[in-house]
Amino acid sequence: MAEIQRHSTGLDEFRRHRSELQLKAERLTTAIADTGHSPALLSKLAEIEGQIDQVNRREEAAKPVNLSAAVGEVREFVYSQVMQLRELFQQEATGSKAALARHIGQLVLTPKTKPDRTDLRGVGRV
């Protein structure tokens, strides 16, 4: 929670700084409108607009990752992989072992024979 609070405070600082810069840009725009074309005022306005863009980029980079979306994507990925494992286990043992070995460093499958079928017990290390 402290990390979230610290992160939130940092985002608040970006917002405060952007507001200050936007206020300066508005004042310069008003000054340009009142006095007419002024290279110095236009240059200063361009400089402040560049600073606003920089603050926007820094704020965007500092935004936290949307964990709810990430969790949903991870859940979907894991589910699809588990479904592939189910299909994999229904294949013959040699093919299953080779496919699992691509993802697991060491894999030992021990057959357990029952009257109506043979089950495999797997132990693996990543």
Question: What's the topology here?
Answer:
Elements: H1 2-35, H2 39-62, H3 67-89, H4 93-101, E1 106-113, E2 118-125
Antiparallel strand pairs: 1-2
Helix pairs in contact: 1-2
Would you write up a description of this structure?
The protein is of the alpha+beta class and 126 residues long. It folds into two domains: 63 residues, Helix Hairpins; 58 residues. It is 71% helix and 13% strand. It has four helices and two strands; from the N terminus they run ααααββ. The chain has a two-stranded antiparallel sheet. β1 and β2 form a beta hairpin.
Features:
126 residues; alpha+beta; Helix Hairpins; 2 domains; two-stranded antiparallel sheet; rod-shaped
Distance between the termini: 33 Å
* Order of SSEs: HHHHEE
The helix/strand class is alpha+beta
Number of helices: 4
Approximately how much beta-strand content do the residues carry? 5-15%
| The CATH topology of the largest domain | Helix Hairpins
Major beta sheet summary: 2 strands, antiparallel
If strands are numbered along the chain, what order do they take across the biggest sheet?
A: 1-2
Mean pLDDT: 79
Low-confidence stretches: none
Q: How many structural units, i.e. domains?
A: 2
In the CATH hierarchy, what is the class of the largest domain? Mainly Alpha
Précis, in short:
By secondary structure, the chain is of the alpha+beta class. The protein contains 4 helices and 2 strands; from the N terminus they run ααααββ.
